[in-house]
Amino acid sequence: MIPPDVLAALRDQRRPVCAYVYDLDVAHRTVDAVRAALPPGALLLYAVKANSHPGVVAALARHVDGLEVASGGELELAAGTGASTIVFGGPAKTDAELSAAVAAGALVHAESLLELRRLAAVAGGDRAGAGAGDRCVRVALRVNRAGVDLAGSHRMTGVPTQFGIDEAALGDAVALVRELPALRLVGFGLHAVSNNLDAVAHAAYVADALDWSVAAARRLGVPLEYVNVGGGLGLDYAGDKRFDLDALRAGLAGMRVPRGVTLAFEPGRFLVASAGWYAAEVLDLKRTHGRWFAVLRGGTHHFRLPAAWGYSHPAVVVPVEDWPYPFERPEVRDAHVDVVGELCTPRDVLARELRVDRLRVGDVLVFGNTGGYGWDISHRDFLRHPYPQIVLIGE
Ligand SMILES: *Cc1c(COP(=O)(O)O)cnc(C)c1O
């Protein structure tokens, strides 16, 4: 269940074990599988926020067509990998970040009319004489479309959110770009959802997004070059549903991408989640009010997702034979245990009622599918415990 090279990497860790292992080969195989499902010529970008470990980003950058970034920090990291395509999104870009994006030659997903003005001001100022007037900064409008119905954990379009330009204001935005000679409008960014598990629905969403973009561009007189349908390919952490790439491929196969238009995808989670394992050693076992608790050297400050989403993350027991103490080693057999962390809050729970055949203090619990939105979204300094080791294998 846990790949031998991941187990080998864990065996080398100092005790008590607390580590993330990222297997770059798994990430590469996933990239290849996703790419095979996309129409020929499609651009496959990696959304850096899912896992921004520099080694992971550098490895991904070698296998995808470019990187999607959402902050100045991510932009700097992406530029450092030499990625040929960088797309910069996010609802609150500062002038300094916009300026860095212009300098890096990034394609900017503009999220408001004001941002378009600020981007043009920064681009004109930065490139006085050379850049101003030659429409050198490529920009796409991130649109919050009026009606998109796609299931997933975080809907960002078709509902009120801080993201993008309301579809009703699209005409004004296009007219504004025409008045800003530093900018060249190339198309639309339509990222709509996260963690969608329905590949058939996702393919239908992509086809609809393309049709909508072609129609909107025609209506508004935009020479369409670029349609970015975002990310959102999902993983079923607690169950056994699978985002079916064959179904995605079949659903996209009939789609006609007009000549001259680049269709871009920018998944984050799906490309890296399955490449990550979080491992934490059991420091104590106890029973209170009739329930067993396995207390880990680790917890939600390293892997926040189960607490944030309110589910139990599956884990596998890796037995460790070494027991250095002269006293008896605590263990439970054929039990259900709540798997909790080292924080002083009852919310520090990674899994409830995990079924174990045998679990001893000193064994290690390993949580798969933790390579995306794991360490990156966690409140790592709460209580100031040491960080997990981060181990890269593969490549
Ligand atoms: C977060 C994000 C993504 C990646 O989403 P996943 O659900 O990880 O695939 C892509 N595009 C934008 C604009 C994002 O904000």
From TrEMBL:
Q: Which residues form the active site?
A: 344 (proton donor)
Q: Coiled coil where?
A: none
Q: Which Pfam families match?
A: Orn_Arg_deC_N, Orn_DAP_Arg_deC
InterPro entries per the UniProt record, alphabetical = Ala_racemase/Decarboxylase_C (IPR009006), De-COase2_C (IPR022643), De-COase2_CS (IPR022657), De-COase2_N (IPR022644), Orn/DAP/Arg_de-COase (IPR000183), Orn_de-COase (IPR002433), PLP-binding_barrel (IPR029066)
Q: Which domain of life is it from?
A: Bacteria
Alphabetically, the GO molecular function entries are: diaminopimelate decarboxylase activity
What the entry lists under PANTHER family is as follows: DIAMINOPIMELATE DECARBOXYLASE (PTHR43727), GROUP IV DECARBOXYLASE (PTHR43727:SF2)
Please give the residue positions where the record annotates the modification N6-(pyridoxal phosphate)lysine: 49
Q: Which cofactor does it need?
A: pyridoxal 5'-phosphate
Keyword list, A-Z: Pyridoxal phosphate
Domain Orn/DAP/Arg decarboxylase 2 C-terminal, by residue range, is 20-371
Protein name per its UniProtKB record: Staphyloferrin B biosynthesis decarboxylase SbnH
Homology family: Belongs to the Orn/Lys/Arg decarboxylase class-II family.
A GO biological process of this protein is: lysine biosynthetic process via diaminopimelate
The Orn/DAP/Arg decarboxylase 2 N-terminal domain, residue ranges? 29-273
